[in-house]
Amino acid sequence: MSIEYHENDSTRVAEVIVRGKITMEDYTAAVDPMQAFIDRHGTVKFMEVIESFQGFDPSMLWPGIKFDWQNIPKISHVAVVSDLGWIGPMSKAAGAVISSQVRFFGMEDLDEARDWIASA
Q1: Cα separation, 8 vs 14, whole angstroms
Q2: Neighbouring C-beta atoms of residue 25, cutoff 10 Å
Q3: Taking a C-beta distance cutoff of 8 angstroms, is the pair 45, 16 a contact?
Q4: Phi and psi angles of residue 85, each rounded to the nearest 5 degrees, phi first
Q5: Strand (E) or helix (H) holding 7
């Protein structure tokens, strides 16, 4: 599995760890519980740790857009953690157009990212 999903009800943080290519099966295995998490809490925080990324199954593009459209207003803070060079600028660009507060961290700052998102 290319996506590992975790959630913490006490901090209202959903976290995904991405490794490799994301299949539709991986996407569904993370998005279904995340939707339930959002439905349960109303407003949540999201953390994405991207260890490696080799693309995604194109069939998940439209479901992904629909999920984001519905749920971005319900995500107050986003922490993105990666050492991939293009992820930081993409995160900052996304942060400029969505209502969520977005912050980027390098992999060496993973603990700091977890502290920030939990206390946000």
Answers
A1: 6
A2: 12
A3: no
A4: -55, -35
A5: strand 3-8
Dump pLDDT digits (tens) for 28-82.
Answer: 999 999 999 999 999 999 999 999 999 999 999 999 999 999 999 999 999 999 9
Asked: is 3-119 a CATH 3.30.750 domain? The reply is yes
CA 118 to chain CA mean position, Å: 14
* Interacting residues of 15 by C-beta distance below 8 A, sequence separation 6+: 5, 6, 7, 8, 46, 47, 48, 49
Token pair, residue 45, equals 């925080």
DSSP 8-state secondary structure symbol assigned to residue 74: G
Burial 36-54 (b: 16+ CB within 10 A, else e): ebbeeeeebbbbbbbeebe
Amino acid at 51: E
Name the 3-class secondary structure at 118: helix
Q: Which two tokens stand for residue 105?
A: 């961290």
- DSSP state at residue 106: -
Residue identified by tokens 């998940």 is 60
